[in-house]
Design a protein that fits this description.
eight-stranded mixed beta sheet, alpha/beta
């Protein structure tokens, strides 16, 4: 058993304990509150020294372990750039758990990440949610698959127009996605009909990956910056009755009401980077606050390695300063990402029964001078500042 004491516990579930304690047993949170009775006198004790105790931070959109640091081409498995529609690729098969960036994530209190392919393709493959600690990928998975990557705008256009292939326009991006979704729907219908009749059915690996999307188990994860691309993604998702997350959502503040009406969440960032493309010319840290005030469920992303992953809480701090506020900014890197990623039953808040993923800071993690004292994953100390 592990006991964390003498800290300000922000559960991110509606309660804050100014002199709080958290008890951990068998990798799960056993109890949280003040003046807890300790059933095991031999429990290991961590003194938070008056610091902030938070659920482990969550990065909702990144390429850690797929675009490895220090490796160049040999460690870059982010985009398969020869075919615009490849839904059957799995991030699980490409993430290197030894990527040095995972240590950087732990040093910032980040305990979980949503990882997947890049945005060079109209359909790029399947994301997963994973922990940031451990050497074996299969033991780090929280949810797989967790989303299907789709991309609009400049990235797929740039990649394929340079190869003299489709797509080279936004029209063809939309057409390719609609065509693929129609084929997936037809495949699902044929399979269900065969099963109802008790007939043999030969499964198609390249189509099976769409079934969790079509049945609502996972969303499409849309790379969208410009306002018109955001609206196109919403339009197509509504046409096919699918779930959707609006990733980057750079011009979301220009159409905040429409995004709210769609019911889809927004994952905003990487805002601490250069405006190096036409479609990010209106990038601003004010966007999260505007969307939050409109009632949109939001999270903040670094899009690592575009912005390095350890700066996630600093990005949240800039958003807090520009109108999001401290409480909502903390939500945008803890409980909101867990909801958006479909893993709120396990992580994102400090509540009994959830995974014991916590971060202890000597102050507000969104301030640049704050240190991460401990990062705990599955009840095990994965990072100590003094080591």
């Amino acid at each position: 058993m592990l006991q964390i004491q003498n800290g300000r516990v922000l559960t991110m579930a509606g309660k804050t304990f100014e002199n709080g304690q958290v008890l951990i047993e068998n990798g799960k949170i056993k109890s949280v509150g003040e003046y807890l009775s300790i059933p095991n006198a031999k429990a290991e004790v961590i003194d938070a020294r008056g610091g902030w105790i938070l659920p482990g931070l969550i990065e909702t959109h990144c390429h850690i372990g797929i675009t490895e640091e220090k490796k160049g081409f040999e460690g870059d498995d982010c985009n398969e750039v020869n075919q615009p529609v490849i839904p059957y690729l799995k991030a699980l098969d490409a993430v290197n758990p030894m990527d040095s960036a995972f240590h950087n994530a732990l040093s910032a209190g980040i305990t979980a990440v949503m990882v997947g392919p890049g945005s060079s393709n109209v359909v790029g493959g399947q994301f997963l949610v994973m922990k940031t600690h451990g050497r074996v990928m299969d033991q780090r998975v929280v949810k797989e698959p967790a989303a299907m990557k789709v991309a609009f705008g400049e990235n797929p256009k740039t990649n394929y127009s340079g190869q003299n292939k489709v797509p080279s326009t936004r029209m063809s991006v939309g057409a390719l996605l609609r065509d693929e979704l129609t084929r997936a729907q037809n495949y699902r219908s044929r399979k269900e009909t065969a099963q109802q009749k008790g007939e043999a059915f030969e499964e198609d690996y390249q189509m099976e990956c769409w079934l969790p999307v079509l049945t609502g188990k996972i969303p499409m994860k849309a790379h969208v910056h410009r306002a018109d691309d955001i609206l196109t993604a919403i339009r197509i998702a509504k046409e096919f009755g699918l779930g959707l997350t609006l990733d980057h959502c750079t011009e979301g503040h220009l159409i905040a009401r429409k995004i709210k009406e769609s019911g889809f969440p927004a994952i905003i960032g990487p805002t601490m980077s250069s405006r190096n493309k036409i479609e990010v010319q209106n990038m601003d840290f004010k966007t999260p606050g505007i969307l939050q005030n409109e009632g949109v469920l939001i999270a903040i992303t670094t899009d690592h390695p575009v912005t390095r992953i350890q700066y996630l809480p600093i990005c949240a701090g800039f958003a807090a300063k520009e109108g999001l506020g401290i409480e909502h900014a903390l939500e945008a890197i803890t409980c909101n990402p867990a909801k958006i990623c479909g893993v709120a039953d396990r992580i994102g808040t400090i509540e009994p029964g959830k995974d014991a993923d916590l971060a202890i800071f000597d102050g507000n993690p969104m301030e640049v001078f704050t240190k991460t004292l401990y990062t705990i994953v599955n009840g095990q100390v994965a990072y100590r500042h003094d080591e």
